[in-house]
Specification:
Layout lengths: L4 H4 L1 H28 L2 E5 L5 E5 L7 H31 L8 H4 L14 E5 L13 H13 L4 E10 L8 E2 L7 H13 L3 E10 L13 H24 L4 E6 L2 H6 L2 H14 L4 E6 L18 E5 L16 H20 L3 E6 L22 H15 L5 E7 L11
Parallel strand pairs: 3-4, 3-11, 4-6, 6-7, 7-8, 8-9, 9-10, 10-11
Antiparallel strand pairs: 1-2, 4-5
Helix pairs in contact: 2-3, 6-7, 7-9, 10-11
């Protein structure tokens, strides 16, 4: 049952009742004084009926006294009524309707900008056709364990798409490594059931030796065809993600050559296509190696809420170890400074869409490599993660951090 206003504010109503009683007493007293000033007094006669008894003749100032009594009573009654009206106004008038002193003076009040919640996330990729589904028991169990052992409120679910060569315009889900639509949907629902927010990220794979998403490059006359093929490949997953309440989505990941050299109109077209279906926050996730490139204009598209960065920036130039206490300052110097500079230039917050550190003594060197011959060092890995969080959680220009990854990611595994 919805509580009444009297239940919500009992003190206000008690005060109102007291003021009402005071008004009644003032009115009664005033009535008696007026009756006295007219020269009559009422009392009960011996037979229980009202009788009128004469009183002493009024003095010469009787008329003035009556006026004073009337005036004083009226002022007192008016004061009480104004007080009561003020209390009731404060009770029922929303605060937003009260006049603003700055607005009255002709100055616009300074808006209060509330910081959006930090996206504390973990990436847990699986690479098979039933990945993320109820049949993928390793993933289903893993996200439960991850919920119990970490403070992650977000989970990033990458989906792999591929093309044969760097200049191919035939793009499709991988026949062996991409979850089916049903498997993807089951994963989204399971993540939501555990209280996670879901970040859907399409990844591109070039199957030719040495190829990666950043190497996709095409002549001008084939670039529109590539963007069309890419859109049609990811479209079913965009629709499924939208239908099932995915909270955030990337339009692409680490497409470094296309990011810099494809016409901006093709990128804004892709953003518009995706935004037409998905109304939540969109991001594009660039690779850290392109942070030193000139900023492309389409990253400022207003429908792109965030700019993501795969932040595998090395903290050391050689394979050595340092004291854990020194890592936060080093991280600030090497990584935070670049991310903040990007946020300032692009005019929107930056999302660390992917970052990871190996469980190894050389965790801070060549941080993008998943393998190493160095011995394990979980303390060094944990210190690197702590340095990341200590530099980002309170930074208003960084929207969140997604760690690569929980398991199934080689030496990067956090599990």
């Amino acid at each position: 049952m919805e509580p009444t206003r009297a239940q919500k504010k009992p003190r206000i109503w008690l005060l109102a009742a007291m003021i009402g009683l005071l008004v009644f007493l003032i009115a009664t007293s005033l009535r008696k004084h007026l009756a006295f000033s007219t020269g009559q007094s009422s009392h009960l006669g011996e037979e229980g009926v009202l009788a009128t008894m004469p009183i002493l003749p009024p003095v010469a100032t009787n008329h003035k006294t009556r006026k004073n009594i009337l005036l004083g009573g009226a002022i007192g009654l008016l004061t009480v009524l104004i007080t009561l009206a003020g209390l009731l106004l404060a009770q029922f008038l929303p605060a937003a309707q009260l006049p603003n002193s700055k607005a009255q003076s002709g100055k616009s009040p300074t808006p209060k900008v509330s910081q959006l919640p930090f996206e504390s996330g973990v990436i847990y990729p699986h690479w098979q056709t039933d990945a993320y589904s109820l049949a993928d028991t390793a993933w289903q169990t893993g996200i439960q364990t991850m919920k119990e052992q970490t403070n992650a409120h977000w989970i990033e679910m990458p989906v792999l798409f591929s093309q044969a060569t760097s200049d191919s315009i035939e793009i499709a889900p991988s026949s062996q490594s991409t979850p089916t639509l049903n498997a993807f949907v089951e994963g989204v629902r399971s993540a939501h059931a555990l209280g996670y927010h879901v970040f859907f990220v399409p990844l591109m794979q070039v199957r030719a030796a040495g190829g990666w998403s950043g190497s996709v490059q095409l002549p001008t006359n084939r670039q529109q065809a590539w963007f069309d093929a890419y859109w049609h490949a990811i479209l079913p997953y965009v629709q499924a993600a939208t239908t099932n309440g995915v909270e955030q989505m990337a339009i692409g990941t680490e497409l470094q050559w296309l990011q810099q050299y494809a016409p901006s109109v093709l990128w804004t077209q892709l953003i518009s296509r995706e935004h037409t279906i998905f109304k939540g926050p969109l991001t594009y996730d660039m690779n850290w190696s392109s942070l030193d490139f000139p900023l492309v204009s389409w990253l400022k598209d207003p429908d792109l809420a965030l700019v993501g960065v795969s932040s595998y920036i090395p903290l050391l130039d050689t394979a050595k170890t340092i004291e854990p206490d020194a890592i936060p300052a080093l991280w600030s110097q090497k990584v935070k400074s670049k991310l903040d500079a990007l946020a300032s230039e692009v005019g929107k917050r930056v999302l660390i869409s992917e970052i990871g550190y190996r469980n190894s003594t050389d965790a801070l060197y060549q941080t993008w490599l998943a393998t190493t011959s160095a011995p394990p060092d979980p303390q060094m890995q944990a210190a690197a993660y702590d340095a990341t969080l200590s530099n980002t959680v309170s930074d208003p220009q960084i929207a969140g951090t997604f760690f690569w990854g929980w398991d199934n990611v080689g030496r990067f595994a956090m599990k």
